[in-house]
């Protein structure tokens, strides 16, 4: 019987090794596939098929195509697009682009979606008409510098490796700013009075100082950061926030006291994705406004 058991055991080990090897092979194949993904050239046919949106030129003298949609086509080199001066809306998302510069001379552009590419760095010129810029899900590292763009309303930079942003204060029309899943350790230059929607979850924030200048957001999701002090978070909290989520931060590791947070932020309606209960609100109120101590009657 012993021999049979040993054989079974050996079989188990063998299977394990074989499965392990399969797993390794699969990972190697995936890595190879990533390496081998060769960008395709942009042909005139592709450009022609991607163009639409017939409209007048700015001077009204001729008619041009104003939209260019070339998503998910394994494109790499954008040089052939550099001459499309009349295009106002460009979507080159989900490609293999590393260099955006051929598009950055197209000064009539109103929107550019270059999300889901391989961009590691980008130096933006001032683009006078640009309203939407989507560079999310790229590999942008270090500090992101934003030039003055008087009409920029939506700036989407999530899922990169950005550790700082600068120049945003020149963009007074900016309303939507997405910075989640980056490497930000602080909120310098982020708390703009014009911003209505701001995402910061999944960074490395140890402080939110600077957000007190936000006037519009009513909800703030700060989950998945490195915030350690409830008091500090509350001190920098913009006045309009009634829905706050600070889960997955070091400050949750100690005994997290919801009522204590409500005492510090009486306007909260939702905390950590759970509505504030009447009991919690009453308990906080009792701490804020304790009942007068009854005078003992001297006998």
Radius of gyration, rounded? 27 Å
Helical/strand content category: alpha/beta
Q: What strand line-up does the widest sheet have?
A: 1-2-3-4-5-7-9-10
Please give the alpha-carbon distance between the first and last residues: 93 Å
Percentage of residues in DSSP E strands: 15-25%
Query: Describe the biggest sheet?
Result: 8 strands, mixed
| SSE run | HHEEEEEEEEEEEHEHEEH
Number of contiguous helices? 5
- Mean pLDDT reading: 90
The parts where pLDDT drops under 50 for at least 5 residues are 4-15
Q: Which term fits the overall shape?
A: globular
The share of residues in helices is 10-25%
Total number of β-strand segments? Answer: 14
At a glance:
22% of the residues lie in helices and 17% in strands. It has 5 helices and 14 strands. The strands form 3 sheets. It has an 8-stranded mixed beta sheet.
Describe this structure in words.
- With 299 residues, this protein is an alpha/beta fold.
- It has helices at residues 2-36, 44-50, 230-235, 258-264, 278-288, and strands spanning 51-56, 63-69, 89-91, 111-113, 132-134, 141-145, 154-156, 161-166, 176-178, 197-199, 219-221, 243-245, 270-271, 274-275.
- The strands form three sheets. It has an eight-stranded mixed β-sheet.
- Strand 1 and strand 2 form a beta hairpin.
